[in-house]
Amino acid sequence: MKTFLIILGLIILVIAIFGLYRLVTVKRQNSKLNAERFERVKELYNKLESGQNLTEKDVLPFAQNLLTRESSYELLRDRNKTDIFPKEYYTIVKGAESNLANWLEFPTELNACPDEIEHLKRVTYDFDGQNNFVHYEVFKCRVNEPHWAAKDGWFLGVVGPYFDDSKPYDFPHATFSRINSTLNNITAEEEAKWVHENISLRR
Fold first, then answer.
1. What are the mean pLDDT values of the chain's consecutive 10-residue runs (203 residues total)?
2. How far does Cα 132 stand from its chain's mean position?
């Protein structure tokens, strides 16, 4: 009995140490990522802070970049300057695309921005049977070698829910990708349904 308790105690201790290590590591990685994200938009931030008279042309490079598009819009929104955000990037699909790329970049997810990302379709549900619709934007993504996910080819990512009155850069609360959900084993509709039922409805 004593031996069993010692073994059990050691197992619990190992699990606790691993959990603490994982928590500290992820926190450190997220801090590093947040610093990198600020560096990407620092030039735009500094120009806004200094009161420079910016135009759409100044914002365009940041809007074109998947990893700076969403944060650039937020910087402009906070300063009531969204009128200079390029119109071709002011759509729900473009906002969702950037949101997914940023989500995938987290160390606990893909830990990288996809090398390719394409919008597949919008999937819509009447979530309460009363003609109240929610929409999910579904994308296919892939990464190149040597990334560990390259071997699986195109995987799916879902962003939403959006509603009939949603604006392009409203925050989607159920962005998700089961990176092993590839075009070989699941459809866009099936993946959106999984995210709706397992992520969105459980929040």
1. 56 49 49 73 93 93 97 95 97 98 91 96 86 93 95 94 95 92 90 92 71
2. 25
Secondary structure string (H, E, C) spanning the chain: CHHHHHHHHHHHHHHHHHHHHHHHHHHHHHHHHHHHHHHHHHHHHHHHHCCCCCCHHHHHHHHHCHHHHHHHHHHHHHCCCHHHCCHHHCCHHHHHHHHHHHHHCCCCCCCCCCCEEEEEEEEEEECCCCCCEEEEEEEEEECCCCCCCHHHCCEEEEEEEECCCCCCCCCCCCCECCCCCECCCCCHHHHHHHHHHHHHCCC
Joined tokens for residue 116: 């390719």
